[in-house]
Structures are given as structure tokens and as C-alpha cells.
Amino acid sequence: MQIADKYAPQQIEAKWYDYWTARRLFHSEPDAREPYTIVIPPPNVTGMLHMGHMLNNTLQDVLVRRARMSGKNACWVPGMDHASIATEAKVVAMLHEQGIEKSSLTREEFLKHAWEWKEKYGGVILKQLRKLGASCDWERTCFTMDDARTESVLRVFCDLYEKGKIYRGVRMVNWDPSAKTALSDEEVVFKESHGKLYYLRYKVEGTDKQIIVATTRPETILGDTALCVNPDDERYAWLPDDARVVVPLVGRSIPVIRDTYVDIEFGTGALKVTPAHDVNDYMLGEKYGLETIDIFNDDGTINDKVGMYVGEERFDVRRKIEGDLAAAGLLEKTEDYTNNVGYSERTGVAIEPKLSMQWFLSMSELAKPATKAVLEDAIRFVPEKYKNTYRHWMENIKDWCISRQLWWGQRIPAYYLPKGGFVVALTPEEALEKARAKSGDASLQLSDLRQDDDVLDTWFSSWLWPISVFDGIRNPDNAEINYYYPTNDLVTGPDIIFFWVARMIMAGYEYRGDKPFANVYFTGIVRDKIGRKMSKQLGNSPDPLDLIDKYGADGVRLAMLMSSSAGNDVMFDEALCEQGRNFGNKIWNAYRLVNGWTADETAPQSENNRLAAQWFRQVLGRTLREVADDFRSYRISEACTTVYRLFWDDFSAQYLEMVKPAFGQPVDRRTLDETRGFFDALMRMLHPYMPFITEEIWQDLAPRAEGESICVAPMPEAEAADSALLARFELVREIVSAVRNIRNQKNLPQKEQLTLQVIADDNYPAEYAPVLMKMANLSAIETVTEKDPAAAAFIVKTTQYFVPLAGMIDADAERKKLTDDLAYYEGFLSSVMKKLSNERFVSSAPEKVVANERAKQADAEAKIAAIKEQLKALGN
Fold first, then answer.
1. What is the pTM of this model?
2. 800 — phi, psi (to 5°)?
């Protein structure tokens, strides 16, 4: 294969991805090897690739590719989530544009449109992940609403119902008026909202007095069924025990109750009680047997139960009722008020607390083994700080509202009998059998039963994901679930620690008696360079596919990896992608350099080249050990940076410079082979991070058999550590750096050879003299016993070195420079001595400050003495 002059990622990336997939290199089947399994956090079927996906899936791909190259049977299962609320909203919007309203369709007609939409538009994100280089086993792609997953979900529902863990009842739920469905507590996002506090007048019956009540939601007075005060509140001691008040505008007479729940300090200390529309009011209603009046339709408009504002939208009513209360003399005042309001995580609208008949899953027993597993590190969280977040939530867990008032999703397998009651069954046929037994009516037909209209919460599908993707619910002892479960690593965001991570752990212990994964790596949030969360709404999020087109997938991957560490937010800057692409260019050009060398088959390997190869082999081994340690600790970003520096600093800037032949000259065969061998090892080390360019170069390095790929090539093995060798070579690097600094300071051409003198001691790396000669461009290294006065001097560790300058520099220019330096340091010393001669300063200043000034004195005096000596050597 002819390597191109320029690195063009767009020309190689699609080629190699097709190569990998055509040869099924990402496919896994159970075998004798150790499995390594990751299940993808299934993106919504409505989703498009965004920067958070880029980060999450790049990290997963690094882990999977490294495991594959470490000899493990790597299996990365991809898939999609059916996303009930989001998908139904998309389909409803699509139909609306076509002039079709959901209300005009039967359930079956709507679902036909939904499946057509899913087949046409769903799953785009999985195709986009291919451009990133994601090495998923695409043959295993699952969908949370496909036949196998749906049956698994229904089986689990039936099982948990039979165990008494699923129940049905009227409870206060979070209602989304836009999606017209209940939400779990975890699907409600609280945001600071600016509104008003309305002070309303409630007339006390039989008196001319009024009680002032403060509320943020005046529209809910339509559902008021009591007024509550604290029994310890002296302001209301005058109220008789049987006092009643009149609801403003509504005219309804309601009782006054007394309960310590009321905060005396808030507002006026009087609370309106609306049991149908506030969680705490609901509890008061149950405690005192209050009437419950639900005033809202499912879409957030006012219903006809009260006869006022019927059909009007809730926030329109809030604005209107303020004016009507004021006109009736029932509004005392309003104040600006800021409070936390719950919004639907799915649709973004303000939720309404609402009494509703729903299905619930009892969580307390399920939570116990799942809590223990994390707190005792059977499941490891990275970073560990999320253990406390998890513990707090699990110890305060509430029952899970698992029903949703939608059509897109797994329909709840409950069937209602004609004369009341219901049965839960996996199939309609089984339901009919159970219904006949329960009712004692053998003549019942399937048409007599009515299946529950609700579907299950989408998370009720995805909590089974690590099990259901291997068919472990339907076939709990199949070969795949026994081989691949528990999975190894889960990479996800901390924002779904409750929605998904905790619930998967619960499902794992309930249905497998084992954890679903060994480690959870929590990513951070991708933010822009000024710290804002990237979002389409802010317009600060680039299109990942545009970045890939511009910089190549390898460049974008490197940018994500080098700016990310577990649990920490990613401050993304497009310049990082440019850095990634530039690194690709560096790799490409380094390979073109080596690829252009010719070998002299008869030439022996020089001592310089032998030493260089010996040193780099040790550096390579050290880095392999560091990277392995980083992966054990899930320091993936650090591992990436370590390999980056190995290639850029150690290999390109040091090793290649050491062994590079003179222009147009050949290199000995052994050095060329060793260098190409190092390149091979480096490509394998880099492959998990930059899969495309590494495959392109690796294929060119040596003849490969058909189907052979770096994807499955083994990671290099580290040689035994020789720390003494590496320490000695660090001295060489420092010496070379010091000589180059002298060249820069004295304006000595890099091509001009210098002599290096050394007063040798144990820290002089004499064995590396050949490397020093080449890298510092020296004509000779001389061992001396005293300093040449006309030489530039430096010290590395304890060894003194000198570069003779006689005849090599412009004496007049050097004399002027030294004279200027002398004047500067003498002036500096004078200012220091003024401080130190001040007795008040020396006696009152902190000891550390005085010591610092004395150190400045000593440093300046040493520099002055050295400059004077150099001037003396120049004849001044």
C-alpha cells in the first residue's frame, strides 16, 4: 500500500470501518476466552448524535478496543430506547402537520403510524456512531420495544405483580399536561421560577372578619376544601373550633382545620388546602377526611366540576383570576416571589400534582441488595463520590409510578372484567383463563375483557437492559446470559443514576441474583469553553458530524479524551479537535520519515543507535505499565495523554532524532527494523484512541494476511523494568538541553559542532557519550579537572560541564552583554541589601520572608562572581 503524502482522514476512515464490519471483527460469540462486555446506554430512538454521546461512546469504544486487543472476547451491545413520551410527541406532531389529530385515530391506527415513523427516522444515531468509529457488535442491535424485549418486560410485570410488588391505586402523581401522562419523581426537574405571592381574603362565616391566605397558585382555589392554621398560632386563637370560611369567588363553605404542619412564619400562617393538587394537601386531606375536587383536565385546562373558567388554560386562568379577585375586593395584595417549580424533564412544561389511578412498583425490598452492592463496592463507582448520592436516594426511595397514559410503549398486561376487578396475564388467552376462574363465569369471551389502556414507563424496559439484551428474562439459563452476564463496565452520565443505574442494579439482583456490571464510570457534562452546558437552545453546541468531517473522527476522539476525566465536566473547545488532527499529522509525517529510510544490509549498528533503541524499549515498557495502571483506575484521559506524550516527546522528538540518518544516507538494517517495530507497538498502543490512522499505518508496516487487523492485534508486552537505565538517560536529556540553551544564548549555529568538557563524577553518564555527541552535535567530549575560564558552564545533578567559547563568539558583543548583566545583578543586589541592612525589617518580618531575601542575596552574589570571571577570561 502506498502511503499518501498528506494525512487525509476523510479518505481513510470510511474505508477501514467498512473493512472491520465486512469481516465481522466486532462480532462476539461465547467461547473459551474471558468475556468483556459493555451494553450501550440506549439512546432514544428519536435521538441525534450530540457532544454528550460523543464523549460517552468514545470512552466505551476505548474500553472495548483495549479489551479486544488484550485477548478478551469483547462484546459491545448497541441498541435504542423507544422513548415513549418523546417518540409519541414526535409522531403526534408529524400527524398534526398532515392534518391528522391523534384523537381521531384508534390505538391501532396510531401505532401503525408510530412504527412507520420509527422505521423511517428512528435509529439515525446508531448510523452516526459508525462515523465515530464505535466498534459495536451491530449484529446484536436491540430495541427496547422489539419482540424479545417486550415479552421480557411483560413477564417481569406479571412476575412482580404475582409477588405483590406491583399494585394499582389512586395516588398523587406528577402530571405532565403536555404529554398527558404521569411522571415519576425522577422525571421532574425543579427550576427557580419568578412569580407572585397572592394574598387572598377568606370571609369567616358568621363574622365580619377575614383570614388572609398567601398562595402562589390562585387558580387552585377552585379545588379548595379546607383552610388550615397552626394550633399554636396566637393570631388565630379567636377562631371557634367549628369555624368555616368562604372560598373567594367560588363561594364554597369550607372548614377550618388545625395542624402543626402549617409553617407559622410563611405568609400569614394560614394555608388553603387543595387535596387534589398538592402532595402535602393530599396528606392533610386523608388525615382529616376532606373532600377532593380535581379541577384540571388532562391537558391542564379547567374542567366543568366548579363551573368557572371551564376549558381555559391554567396559566391564563391565573392571570384572569387575579383581576377578578381584585374586582371583587378579595385580593389583599401581591408580592414578587421566587420559588422552585417542577417541570417535566421530557416536555419542559410545568407539572401539575394530580390525583390519578396509576400502577406502582414497591421499591423498598428491591432497594436493599442494590444499596448494599454499591456501598460495599461489589459494584464500583468511578468517581467514588457518587456513592453518597446513590446511598441518599436509595435510603429515601419512593414507590415507582410505572404507568404512562400513552399509546407508544409496552401496554400494561392487566385485563378488566365486565363486573369489576382485573387479572394480570402475559397473553390475552391466559388472561381469559384467569378471568373465567376469578369470576366463575366459564362463558366469558376475550371480547368481554378490556385491557388497560396505559403503557409502562420506558425505564421499566431499560432497567432490564443488561439482562434482556442476552434474553436472560425469557431464557434465564441460556448460554449467552451465562457467559456475558454480569457485564464489566457501564459508562453513563450521573444525571441518570436514579432513572437507570440504580434500577438496573435492582433488576440484576431480583432476576439474576447478581450485579449487572462490575464498574460504573460516570462521565461529566460537556460544556463550552466559558463553562455553559452545550445545548442546541444556547447555540453553543457544534454538530459532531461537522467536526468529524472537518477534523476526522480520530482528531475529535482525541479532543474528547484529552479534556475528560471521570465525573468531571468537559470544557470543550474546537481548538482541541485541531490539536487532535495535528497529532494525526505528526503520526503520519513520522511514519513517512521512517518509511523513507533505506537500509544498508552490511552496515553494523552504531553504538548510538544501539543505546537509543535500548533506551526507547525501556520507555515503551514503562509507559505500557503506566497505561495499564491508569486503566485499572479508570484514568482513561490520563492514559490517552500518556501515550500521546510517548509518541510526541519520547519517540518523535527524542528517539527518531537519535537514530535518524544523515540526509540521503541509509540506516543499518537492525535500527530500521527496530524502529519499524517500535512504530508497530506505538500504533497498537494508540489504536483504542485513534482507530483509523493506526489501522492505516499498521497495515502498511508489514505484509498482512486477508482480514488481519490491528483491532485484534495483541497489545505490546512490556520488558522488565530497568529504572537505573532510565534515570541515567534523563541525565543525557538534561545535558543536551543545556548545550542547546547555550547555543541559543550565545547565538551559536546548531550546525556548528562544539566541544563539551566535563569534570566527571558518578553522575556523568559516560556510557551515553555516543548519544550526547549526536544529539548535542559535539565534535568531542573531554574530561578535565578544572574549569576553562572562557567556557559557558552548567551543572546537571552534581556534574560540572563546560562549553569552550574561545574563538566561537563575538568577544565585543559578549563583553557588552556580560557588562549589562553585571550592572543588572549589582543593582538587584543593592536593593536586596537595603532591606537586609534595615534592622526593623530583619527583626519584624516573618522568618520565611527574611530567609527568602538572604537567598536572593546569595544567588545575586554567585551570578556577579560568575560574570566577573567570564569578563576576566575575555580580557576585561
1. 0.84
2. -95, 135
